């Protein structure tokens, strides 16, 4: 259980021992609400003319846009959802790298839809000052999409691990989902994904990534909970004092 969960359980036990049932109920609601919260980082991968991502026949990764001043392959804006007070990076000077996503098995084509299973891969997202914002390692995934048209395809993985960066503490445990929408896909002269001899053809594409995971509660939420508990205790003490004064 996450640290927040343990704090909640400990406080819950204290509430029950002291028969503060309203306090216990509020804690349960707070925990249920926070357990489902999601934090999302959108990484549009910038507007440079050449492609953002490449599949070379075996490995899927970002292409280097040639901007040497940033650590990542692709300069990008970054949008944050579910991070309290964290401002978006609205200039294309953050940077992102996806590496070593390996195609495994044969590519399957079913009624014009192509699916290529993948395994592994890592990503890193750096702030404009080249400090690491978040990194992760990916598990099993798939590149899926149409063999007719350059859009509407995706690379998706779930249940990956967050591994580092200044935003690591915003995410609860190993709840990483990673999704990359693919547009303007070009496989040789073919627009869209293409399969030859049960193998996905090499391609380049524009991409837009979404990194998401379960959010740990904001400190402000924790503060509200603690002040709620304190208020409940104060009210009880006042009620006891009033009873005592009436008896006197
Ligand atoms: Ca780009
Ligand atoms: Ca760079």
Could you tell me the number of beta strands? 17
> What ligand molecules are bound, each kind once?
calcium ion
Radius of gyration: 24 Å
Strand content: 35-45%
> What general outline do the C-alpha atoms trace?
globular
Structural key phrases:
15-stranded antiparallel beta sheet, 2 domains, two-stranded antiparallel ribbon, alpha+beta, 248 residues, 17 strands, binds calcium ion
Overview of the structural elements:
24% of the residues lie in helices and 42% in strands. It is α+β, with helices and mostly antiparallel strands. It folds into 2 domains: 3-34 and 228-247, no CATH class; 38-214, no CATH class. Strand 9 (122-126) and strand 10 (132-137) form a beta hairpin. Helix 2 (21-35) packs antiparallel against helix 3 (219-247). The mean pLDDT is 83. The structure holds calcium ion (2 copies). Residues 67, 70, 72, 95 line the site of one calcium ion.
